[in-house]
């Protein structure tokens, strides 16, 4: 009996081969825990996005106000040197409303007044292009359903000339009451950000733990510079595009030159695709009003302006602001358009740029001087590739030398055996 108890005690002291804790500590368990964490984080992010989409009346004005405040903050700091904070805020706020608001309102109303004619000209230009394409493809085995094309054109034309599209294109909010509420909220938030923006940011920083405070301050600084630089840089680039294309339209005496220039300027705030679509619209109007020769000249002017912008102006103006790959910009535009329409397309790129700037601050990837982490990694990849190719060449050279030595040894052995036989 005693021996049996001793055996049981000894077996209880032995660690079993399999334990429940191993379910969480082995490779599969760690992957399961990490997957569960990712699911929880993804669920929380989805809930936050869903809540923000249901509060667009508050979220969109707040985001626009923050971006505009970042762009106008250098003027506020300049005015604070010679006047109190409240007076500096009022000066910048009212000055911005009078200048930007007045010019913007006049331009937008000029586009709205000429919008029906603009759409008719564009549709007529598309019809001419379609007829040319049908004549070109007439001898080929392509079948174009005329009824579907006419139905699509009628739908697009009716929507573009409707009041609903005019309201949605300018405000992206269908109800006039909601638009007024959002506009008033935007102006109120913008004024308080211009007046007490530094104090509001200091309040949020005060809640950050001491060991994270430096990264928090750096994140806010990068966000402010990214937002402000993006708006200022985009406005400069869009104005250059609008001036260049409008000048070409005026020289060629294309009708609706000023409204088309306004459309080009507004389209410049949608990266990659906005200016291109506006240029196509100007080309279609020139095709209808002035014929194919002038349309080709306008198309050449649009291409020239876009090339000058992409290769010279934009790298100089926005080199330090928008360090995003074109694929990232395209994906952000698509996601922003799906989630929030035109406003989403306008806000998506600066938000992604700010998010990337903040991520670089918190991950230590921000390089003030010298090469960035991606450039260093690329150089390392090239160095490893060069080293690998050098090793392969050396190994091949050594193998050839060994083969030559073995061949020489074999030849000498054969000669010795021939001498022995002789």
UniProtKB/TrEMBL annotation:
Residues 390-413 have a biased composition (Basic and acidic residues). One of its GO terms (biological process) is transmembrane transport. GO terms for cellular component: plasma membrane. It is a multi-pass membrane protein. Coiled coil: none annotated. Residues 390-422 are annotated as: Disordered. This is Putative PurR-regulated permease PerM. Keywords: Cell membrane, Membrane, Transmembrane, Transmembrane helix, Transport. The chain crosses the membrane at residues 31-52, 58-76, 88-112, 169-194, 230-252, 258-277, 284-306, 326-359. It holds the Pfam family AI-2E_transport. It comes from the Bacteria. The keyword Cell membrane applies. Belongs to the autoinducer-2 exporter (AI-2E) (TC 2.A.86) family. The keyword Transport applies. It comes from Enteractinococcus coprophilus. It is found in: Cell membrane.
């Amino acid at each position: 009996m005693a021996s049996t108890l001793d055996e049981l005690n000894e077996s209880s002291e032995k660690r079993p081969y399999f334990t429940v804790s191993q379910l969480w500590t082995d490779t599969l368990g760690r992957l399961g825990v990490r997957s569960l964490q990712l699911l929880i984080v993804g669920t929380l992010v989805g809930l936050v996005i869903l809540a923000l989409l249901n509060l667009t009346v508050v979220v969109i004005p707040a985001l626009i106000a923050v971006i505009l405040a970042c762009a106008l903050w250098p003027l506020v700091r300049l005015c604070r040197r010679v006047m109190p904070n409240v007076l500096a805020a009022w000066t910048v706020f009212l000055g911005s409303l009078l200048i930007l608001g007045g010019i913007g309102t006049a331009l937008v109303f000029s586009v709205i007044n000429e919008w029906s004619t603009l759409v008719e000209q564009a549709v007529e230009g598309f019809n001419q292009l379609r007829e040319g394409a049908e004549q070109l493809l007439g001898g080929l085995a392509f079948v174009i359903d005329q009824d579907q094309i006419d139905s699509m054109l009628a739908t697009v034309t009716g929507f573009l000339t409707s009041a609903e599209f005019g309201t949605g294109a300018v405000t992206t909010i269908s109800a006039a009451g909601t638009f007024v509420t959002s506009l008033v909220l935007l102006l109120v938030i913008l004024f308080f950000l211009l007046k007490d923006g530094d104090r509001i940011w200091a309040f949020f920083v005060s809640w950050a733990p001491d060991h994270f405070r430096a990264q928090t301050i750096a994140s806010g600084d990068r966000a402010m510079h990214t937002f402000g630089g993006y708006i200022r840089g985009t406005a400069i680039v869009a104005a250059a595009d609008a001036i260049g294309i409008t000048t070409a339209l005026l020289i060629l005496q294309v009708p609706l030159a000023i409204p088309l220039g306004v459309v080009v300027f507004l389209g410049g705030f949608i990266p990659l695709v906005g200016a291109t679509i506006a240029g196509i619209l100007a080309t279609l109007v020139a095709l209808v009003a002035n014929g194919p020769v002038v349309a080709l000249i306008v198309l050449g002017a649009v291409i020239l302006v876009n090339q000058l912008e992409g290769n010279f102006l934009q790298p100089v103006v926005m080199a330090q602001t928008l360090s995003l790959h074109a694929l990232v910009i395209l994906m952000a535009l698509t996601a922003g358009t799906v989630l929030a329409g035109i406003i989403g397309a306008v806000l998506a790129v600066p938000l992604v740029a700010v998010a990337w700037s903040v991520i670089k601050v918190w991950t230590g990837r921000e390089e003030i001087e010298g090469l960035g982490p991606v450039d260093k990694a690329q150089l390392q990849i090239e160095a490893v590739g060069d080293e690998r190719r050098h090793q392969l060449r050396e190994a091949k050279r050594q193998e050839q030398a060994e083969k030559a030595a073995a061949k020489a040894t074999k030849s000498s052995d054969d000669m010795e055996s021939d001498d022995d036989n002789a």
